[in-house]
Every structure is written in C-alpha cells, then in structure tokens.
From TrEMBL:
UniProt xrefs under PANTHER family: PROTEIN MIZU-KUSSEI 1, PTHR31276
Protein name: Protein MIZU-KUSSEI 1-like
Origin organism lineage: Eukaryota, Viridiplantae, Streptophyta, Embryophyta, Tracheophyta
One Pfam family in the UniProt entry: DUF617
Length: 254
C-alpha cells in the first residue's frame, strides 16, 4: 500500500463526513462501510433512552396508582358513619299550677316569649308534686307508643303521653296550646329567669288560696338524644342544693 493510499484511508472520513452508510473502495479490492458503526451507536442510544422513558412512565404510573389508592382510602375513612351526638341547648322551664289543681310544664326559648315551644298539662296534682320534690329527686317520664300516625311527627308534637313519676304510673300528660290565661301568667313572669313563688289570683273570689298559682322557674338543659328521645334537666342555681328534676320524652317501640 502506498503512502497516498494510507493517507486517503485515514483522512478521507475526517474531510468528508457521511450521514448515510457509504461504501468506499480502495485499491486492491478492499471495501469498507462508513457511518454504519455510527448508525448502530445511535440505535443503541435510542434503545437505552426508550428503556429509561419506559421505566420513568412505569414509576409515574405506580405512583399515581398508590396516590389514588391512598386517596380512596382517605375518602373511605371519611365516609365512615359517626354516631350522632346528643345536642344540648339552654331553655327556660316553668312548672306551675293552682294549689288545688294539676301541674303544668312550660318550655320557652327565652323569657320574653309568650308563645311556649312546649306546654304540657300533667295529671299529677300540685300538692303531690310538692311532696315528691321534698325527697330531692323527681324524674318524670312521658312515654308514647310508636303508632304509625305518630312515627313521623316531632316528639314534642305528640298529643297524649303516659306519665310516670319516680317509677310510678300517674295517669297521662296532654299537650296544650297556650290560652289567654297562660299568656298573661307568662307575661307577668317575663322579668324573672330563676325563682319560685305564688301569683295571687286576682279573680276576687272568696277562695283566693285555691286560685293562687304556684310556680317554679329555672333554666333547663334541653337534650335531644334522637328523634325518639328528648329530656329537660333542671339547672339548680344553688350549688349546695340536692334538688334534681328531670322530664323525659320517650317514644317506645311497644
């Protein structure tokens, strides 16, 4: 091989770059393909890039699946049903009645309202309730059966109840609407939040003692346990007193 052929062999690829595979003939019948190795190298690099892209896509997909699963678990946990907590509000409760009459229980949102949210006439006599309160503990339970016509109505809208006082059945309780006499009595008591006493009759009759209205007014904690259970608990302003008074409204299954 001459010096010219040797120089041509080594310098020609540098002077004339080839983009496509080109076959070059040399003296003596030798041939070579320029650019083939470059193409193979490019193909190999592309394969490596494709593999890396595929791996990245798989990793991203796995992260998305994990994130989605975690998100689903979070929402599933959030959707767990939590038992309803009893709601508690403060109301004004007034127990009143004539000396020789029956006891009434009136519930108001505030002392200025002459339209009570609940007004019940209890079958227990006023003198008997005073005697029960002497023991320091009074629990009145008003029960009504779950009849089809009363199942969907509000508990405070039930017209008639079976009454129990300290475990003894004492007749019935009836829901009433406030008449003019009741509204006048509430009007006279609107300046008072807590207290007890006697309202004079004002009728001018000879038996004034029998017409006097005895009352006890205080704050009550109104607890709504469910659609079938409500209660009113006396908040005693005297911390040293052992007096407890609770009234329960219950819708029973039988």
């Amino acid at each position: 091989m001459t010096k010219i052929d040797s120089l041509r062999r080594f310098l020609l690829p540098c002077i004339t770059p080839q983009t496509n595979p080109t076959t070059v003939s040399f003296p003596g019948g030798a041939t070579t393909s320029i650019g083939a190795s470059k193409k193979r190298l490019s193909t190999s690099l592309r394969d490596d890039i494709d593999v890396q892209d595929s791996a990245s896509s798989s990793a991203s997909s796995s992260e998305a699946v994990v994130t989605s699963a975690a998100s689903d678990d979070y929402y599933n946990l959030s959707a767990v049903t939590v038992p309803q907590r009893p709601s508690k509000t403060m109301v004004i409760g007034t127990i009143f009645g004539r000396r020789k009459g029956h006891v009434w229980f009136c519930v108001q949102h505030d002392r200025l309202s002459v339209k009570p949210i609940l007004l019940l006439e209890l079958s227990i006599a006023t003198s008997q309730l005073v005697q029960e309160m002497g023991s320091g503990l009074v629990r009145v339970a008003l029960e009504c059966p779950t009849r089809p016509e009363l199942k969907s109505c509000l508990l405070r809208s039930v017209p008639v109840w079976t009454m129990f006082c300290n475990g003894r059945k004492l007749g019935f309780a009836v829901r009433r609407s406030a008449n003019e006499e009741t509204r006048m009595m509430l009007k006279r008591l609107e300046s008072m939040t807590v207290g007890a006493g006697v309202l004079p009759s004002g009728s001018g009759s000879g038996d004034s003692d029998a017409d006097e209205v005895m009352y006890m007014r205080a704050n009550y904690e109104h607890v709504v346990g469910s659609s079938d259970s409500e209660s009113f608990h006396l908040i005693n302003p005297d911390a040293n007193s052992a007096q407890e008074l609770s009234i329960f409204l219950l819708r029973t299954s039988s």
